[in-house]
Specification:
Helix content: over 70%
Shape: globular
Radius of gyration: 25 Å
Largest sheet: none
Distance between the termini: 75 Å
Length: 474
């Protein structure tokens, strides 16, 4: 009788417990289901692209955690003059070697076509370990922070190179590469926006805590990388792309053709064609598009470093330094996300015209910001730079997909990314070295874009008028 009463009393308690547990559990499971539904839509789940989108979101969240930790240590913790010296040291110790290592990463990874999942997992795991190393350096102020940061940059670049090679392998039916790239990029941006305030909150606990968070995130990414489909490790039909055709690889001499002579190397070249396909051998659109994107990326690096120091000393009207940096950062992020979304919607129709147009738009806003320097104009330039960089990069992706032969296309993406990263480093170095004068800085920004326009716009518009020899549009 006692047990029956106990059972009757425990029933409502169990039901109440289940109700509370369900109420606490539902927001997380519902959110997870919503994210999975969005990332796996339009066939992305069946092709495996959805898992790559999720992996890239994890990558973005981990990277922003490390960025927050480094910014708080190298930039915000000391006076401005000392901070400029620290950031310059950071660029010298990390970015300078990185510009030498970056061109090597792509070719090295080209020799590991059957280990792309392992390569991405390794890049994630290495960053998890390096985040722990930096956590100790942040606490003690040790110099090991800088080589560890270089290691993180190299691993991040390696991940990006492999991801560029993986995307074409995971395209769903009737899904363009531009649309796939924009969806992957947008997921990374959204994850960055979500993780940034979490990282800032962790930093209030202690300077090393964002790095602990990054370690956990990258460990999760390591596991997630191995869930990608096995087909991403396939390299069937792929070859390597080069920014310049290999020296000495030309068409066989006429007399060799007539006489049927020539060594095996000559006959091999004759069989393959006049020269191996590369970015310079597929027409001017890709190279001109790359030059325009180089200007956008150099502008991005310049604005990040120059405005960071300028707004610290001269905040926007009526705002603190932190709020001023926040306004500029949010404006750039919103512009970048909008450019990615518009690029997916346009599907990069007429990419040469788009690249020329957005470069002209960025240049016009930069000139206006130099002439009428103000809070509104700085925010407008930041948003415009984010928008035009994203849209221009998606259009460059479209031109590479259209004009670069399929067997070298994935390698071409890797090499173009290396060039753009080096441009960002150069722009950042200019931003650090420049005196903290707003009008002067915006004039330099306009000059960077003017140089890009002078070297690329005419070629882009000429190519657009002639039409592509490859009519397939991404």
């Amino acid at each position: 009788m006692t047990s029956a009463r106990s059972h009757k009393d425990s029933g409502p308690l169990r039901r109440t417990g289940r109700t509370i547990g369900h109420a606490l559990h539902t927001p997380f499971t519902g959110t997870a289901r919503g994210i999975r539904k969005a990332t796996h839509a339009h066939g992305a789940g069946e092709s495996g692209l959805g898992k790559l989108i999720e992996l890239h979101a994890v990558n973005g969240a981990g990277d922003v955690m490390i960025t927050i930790a480094l910014a708080s240590t190298v930039f915000f913790s000391v006076p401005t003059d000392e901070a400029r010296g620290r950031v310059a040291l950071y660029l010298a110790v990390t970015m300078a070697p990185f510009t030498l290592l970056a061109p090597v990463i792509g070719p090295l990874l080209d020799h590991l076509p059957h280990g792309r999942r392992a390569a991405m997992a390794g890049a994630m795991l290495a960053r998890a370990v390096l985040a722990l190393t930096m956590a100790g350096a942040v606490a003690t102020g040790g110099l090991e922070l800088y080589p560890a940061a270089l290691g993180v940059l190299v691993c991040s670049k390696a991940y990006g190179v492999v991801r560029s090679a993986v995307v074409p392998r995971l395209l769903p039916p009737r899904f363009s590469l531009v649309k796939a790239n924009s969806r992957v990029t947008l997921a990374g941006l959204l994850a960055t926006g979500v993780a940034a305030p979490i990282g800032a909150g962790l930093h209030t606990i202690g300077p090393a805590w964002p790095l602990y968070g990054a370690c956990v995130i990258f460990i999760g990414g390591t596991v997630l990388a191995f869930t990608l489909p096995h087909k991403v490790d396939s390299s069937k039909g792929e070859r390597k792309a080069q920014l310049v055709p290999p020296h000495g690889v030309t068409s066989p001499r006429p007399e060799a053709k007539r006489n049927g002579k020539g060594n095996g190397r000559t006959r091999g070249r004759e069989k393959r064609g006049e020269k191996r396909p590369g970015l310079r051998s597929v027409g001017p659109s890709v190279l001109n598009g790359l030059q325009a994107n180089t200007a956008h990326r150099a502008l991005s690096g310049f604005l990040i470093f120059f405005l960071a120091f300028l707004l610290r000393e001269q905040p926007l009207a009526g705002q603190s330094a932190a709020v001023s940096l926040g306004i500029v950062g949010v404006a750039a992020g919103v512009g970048n996300a909008l450019g990615t979304a518009v690029g997916s919607w346009l599907r990069a129709r007429g990419p040469e015209v788009i690249v020329a147009s957005v470069l002209a738009l960025a240049l016009g806003v930069a000139v206006l910001t130099a002439l009428f320097f103000s809070t509104v104009m700085v925010a407008a330039l930041s948003a415009t730079a984010g928008f035009t960089q994203a849209l221009s990069k998606l259009s460059l992706d479209a031109m590479i997909q259209r004009d670069v032969p399929e067997e070298v296309r994935t390698s071409a993406f890797a090499r173009s990314e290396t060039v753009l990263q080096m441009a960002w480093v150069i722009g950042g170095g200019i931003g650090i070295a420049l005196p903290l004068n707003g009008v002067l800085g915006m004039s330099v920004a306009a000059g960077i874009l003017t140089l890009g326009a002078a070297t690329s716009v005419r070629g882009l518009l000429s190519a657009a008028r002639r039409g592509s020899p490859h009519p397939r549009v991404a």
